[in-house]
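Let's inspect a concrete specimen:
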Amino acid sequence: MSETRVAGGSSLHREDDDLPAQKASDRESILGSTGPSEDVELVRRASAGDATAFEALVLRYEIPLRKLVYGYVLNWEVAEDVAQDAFLLAYRKLGDLGESAAFKSWLYRIAINRAHDELRRSARWGKRLDRNVGDEALAELPAAGAESAVESRLLRRALVRELARLPKSQRTAVVLKDVVGMKYVEIAECLGCPIGTAQIRVHRGRQKLRRRLGEPDSRGGGGT
């Protein structure tokens, strides 16, 4: 087992045969690419064996992917492991991704399925995942209305506690919208549901969170 280093010191653990070797000059030549319009080209190159192209995809999506998985498992260490597994599985299955399919939504669906697998495995063995709320995890969560760093930390801890109480469908939708920052059309594509259903799930999840956290219910389910 070795690992592919990416920006910020994070890494993608992999088997030696999973990803081909890369040249530093090739890696540097693609890291400037931004936005979803480059995904199709990066996927094409990665499918042809260009490891630098796939690493660019990892750099682009590793942070939102970890946020998404954390919203499911509420344990930062487990979320990092699941996210790495999702990237490896995505790499192995790149050939299954049609040219017209969006890589981001496809990757997120893989991660969601892997998170479900982790939760089922824990339940099957009678093991409950501890809610690991480290500094890095807390920093990823919104804490609107906090007037100090201490209050912000307390609000985020309370938010994690209440997220765990939401139905999975609502928790996922809220995390995708308010933590990952996706638009409703993207959430619908990721979850395989109508846009209206995605809006309802976010709205109801927000309502429950605000009621339990004692905040005014000022945000509806509309918007983009």
